[in-house]
Amino acid sequence: MVKFPNFKTEFFSSNRQRLLACLPSDLAVAITANGLVQRGADSAYPFAQDANFWYLTGITIPDIVLVIDRSREFLIAPLREGGRVILDGQIDYSALSAVSGIKEVLNEASGWKRLDGIISKNKRLASLAPAGAYIEAYGMYSNPARARFTDRLIRHTPDLEILDIRRDLARLRMIKQPEELIAIQAAIDITVTTLKEVLKQPRAIYHYEYEIEADITRGFRRRGALGHAFEPIIASGQRACTLHYLDNNGAQSPDDLFVVDVGANVCGYAADITRTLAVTTPTKRQKDVVLAVKEAHSYALSLLKPGVSFRTYENKMERFIGAKLKQLGVIDNLKKDNIRRYFPHATSHFLGLNPHDAGDYSQPIQPGYVLAVEPGIYLPKEGIGVRIEDDVLITENGNKNLSFPLPVYL
User: Which of 21, 101, 279, 295 has an alpha carbon within 20 to 30 A of 339's alpha carbon?
Assistant: First the structure.
């Protein structure tokens, strides 16, 4: 039976105090929730809260502002009137207080007047720096809420110095607290149980990738998850060589391997698990590539322990997979560029409120980290893409594979 977390106000208030303890004593903090983003005409995309804002408040509605310093904390609620109230309802101030533990909730006019008074005293404020409007590396637009908030702060106080606290919050979020571990384990358990149910079916019943996706979605929701933690990847054959293939509408060929990369969302926390399977009977070549990735996965688990640097870990993984690629006859030498052509991503990333969670990779690995472990080999010319991914907790003595009950099927 899945154990679900209970996030009490103490969790969020403690996180606020821990953040303040990282900062100069005279520095106030002000950050904004995410905003709604237009999908088309008068409809918005489903709302997803800024993870840092949730971590400090537990609030899941848009456009709220949090202000804290050593002597006070309050929320600023945005103005809603006219048709907006009819569509979305008024904001319940008492509900904001109940979840966050912040007693004082001000309307927009009163809240900004008080915030102006705070920042006018020393012309300094801690906040979260906005990303650029367009994030080139990912080909996507950022949520505009932080940029809009920053612009408004500067309009109110043109000579304001804003200190970026993204790294401070990332370092706090790296070490998972007991409630967070319960949430992550619940997301993992739901993902594992659902995948066991779906993948035990005869593969031949699935003619298209979206049929697998549909059954996984049903399994997540039926077991109490909020849905997917990220857009699911169901990729057959050569499509599995596109790391973030999201169409999920291709036909399943009997000769293909297919990659299932999914994770349930529980209370905003993510699982992230990948398995590679054969539609029917795999060829010897397919088996050899899968075996190479299995061995890389086992090697990664043998390396993960407190004190290891991410650089050392990733360099060892690169060399290991390079040797496997050479054994497979894919490359002739172990030059970095040759290896990265067929293994183009990192082996591990932080996991938590985001599937690729906040973290400082310059820090050595520590107990309390939750990391995804996902080596892969991708051979586009052969139509073979293989990735195996599990979610791992770093312990005092090594690590624990939290998704261990899910077998590697091939």
Answer: 279
At 254, list the tokens. 């009997």
- Radius of gyration, CA atoms only, the chain: 23
CB atoms within 10 A of CB 26: 10
Q: How far is 280 from 267, CA to CA, in rounded Å?
A: 37
C-alpha–C-alpha distance, residues 390 and 184, integer Å: 12
Q: Is 197 exposed, middle or buried (0-12, 13-18, 19+ CB in 10 A)?
A: middle
Tokens at residue 349, please? Answer: 């990333």
Query: Torsions phi, psi of 29, nearest 5?
Result: -120, 135
In angstroms, the CA 346 to CA 329 distance is 22
Q: What's at 17, amino acid-wise?
A: Q
Q: Which domains does the chain have, with CATH numbers?
A: 9-172 (3.40.350.10), 175-401 (3.90.230.10)
The DSSP annotation for 42-62 comes to TEEPPP---HHHHHHH---ST
What phi, psi does 127 have (nearest 5°)? -155, -175
Q: Are 191 and 273 in contact (CB under 8 A)?
A: yes
DSSP symbol at 343: -
CA angle 383, 386, 392 (to 5 degrees): 165
